[in-house]
Structures are given as structure tokens and as C-alpha cells.
């Protein structure tokens, strides 16, 4: 499957119709249909069944789709790298981070770095831990910042800080007058927190068991920032990391969680790839900034 065929296949899988896929790729419908048919001829099996104006993936298409997406990510990374080389950029630092450190740590670290190195291009990616690891392996990011220090063996994790949890309450909530909240205080509340089998959820569940209470969210989230809208809408009380600058969001009351468990903020690098001098300088800025931010979080608590 050639690069263009791969691109068309992924577009049709995501869009579901020839019209929508052609619009995504900015090509004509007949041209896209021809590429699909030609691809099927070369592969020797059908990728899509035509059902009431839609293209329904065959079992074979569903089988190869995950591999196709991984190849597409690698191809896009290659395109970015060749573009950087073609434009003759003096340097490039690429950092992938999960949302809390991306919002709380990277802006300051980037500001300090830019003041000293104005001609080096900075590139930021916000991604979950699994995608950060893929980017480090592929060379699409040199540095990763995540709230987990348990990566695979080929990824090095340096713990640069630890962060606890806070409770986000809707304005006017009955618990707003308390200076801090315990897990027991939240019994009977509709709880918004991390989905199971994630590092924060594991830490909260362990703390709840130790305190003889139950940790059972009624609304699970993948990233803490998504809790803001749910709390503002009155859907419940959120238990989230203390790293994000929660006070900047209107309609929220922020209270620290008493006897809060802590989980790590880790700086991730690939053991197989050496860092450039610019990467090393950025790593130092991230370390220093993280320490400062966490110190402010502790003072605010």
C-alpha cells in the first residue's frame, strides 16, 4: 500500500463516506473512489462494502486499520523532519506532555528557554502517556513530561516532582466552607475522577481502601482538564491533580484533599536516542520550572 493509498484508506475509515473523505483530502470523489478500487485490486481483497451510500469496512479493513494508523503517524513524522531540514532551521526542541504539565509547567519553561535561545524552534505536543512513549520512540519528541514513572524499559523516567489531589466543587456547594476535604467528606457525592487502570485512579483507590472508604466515580475522565465543564454544569465533585491552575476557571471552588496520596511528575526520554544540546537545556528548564510550580502548589494548599 503506497503512501497516497494509505492516506485515502485512513480517511475513508474515519469519515465513513466517499464524500466526507474526499472533502478531508481536498480531492474529487471520483479520484478517491478510483484510488480505493485500485488499492483493493492490488491487495487482492475488498476493503469496503457499499451500503446505502456509506462504505462499511470489511473484516480485513478492520484488521489492518491499526497498523495503517501507526504507519501514517510515522510517515507524518518523517514529513515534518524533512520539512525542518529543508527549511534549514537552526534547531528544534520537541516536547510531548500530558495536559497538566503542558498547561502548568511548559509555558514557564518555554518562556525561560526562549529568552536565552530565541532562534531555536519549539514544538509542543499534548498527548496521553501511550502516545508520548510512541513519539519518543519514533523521534517525534525528544522529551516527554507525564504523571507516571512506570514507562516501558526502553524509556527512561526521571521523577522531577510529586503532586497530590484537589477537590473541585461547583459554586454554592455544601462543602465549600471547609478549608480542606477528606475522602470521607465526599461519601454520597456524585464523583468525577480518573478512569480505572490509570496511575491517579490507582493512587486514589489505594488511599480510599486505607481510609476505609470507597472510591467509585460516577463519571470517569481520561484527562483532568475535562472535569471543569462537568463540575461547572453541576454533574458532581471532581477529584483531580493539584498541578493544573484550577483557580483560573470560573464557577469552581478548589479545596485540597486532606491526607492526599501523591503521584509523580516524570521527565521521559528514550534510552535509544541521544539528546541534542538544546534538548538538554530544555530538560534543565523543565526540571527547574516543575520544582517552582510544585512549590507554589504546596504554598497555595
UniProtKB/TrEMBL annotation:
Q: Which InterPro entries match?
A: LysR_HTH_N (IPR000847), LysR_subst-bd (IPR005119), WH-like_DNA-bd_sf (IPR036388), WH_DNA-bd_sf (IPR036390)
What domain of life does the native source organism fall in?
Bacteria
**Residue stretches spanning the membrane:** none
| Molecular-function GO term, any one | DNA-binding transcription factor activity
Gene Ontology BP, a term: positive regulation of gene expression
Record Gene3D superfamilies: 3.40.190.290, Winged helix-like DNA-binding domain superfamily/Winged helix DNA-binding domain
Give UniProt keywords alphabetically.
Answer: DNA-binding, Transcription, Transcription regulation
- The segment(s) forming the HTH lysR-type domain are 1-58
Family according to the record = Belongs to the LysR transcriptional regulatory family.
Q: Which protein are we looking at?
A: HTH lysR-type domain-containing protein
Naturally occurring in which organism (per UniProt): Starkeya nomas
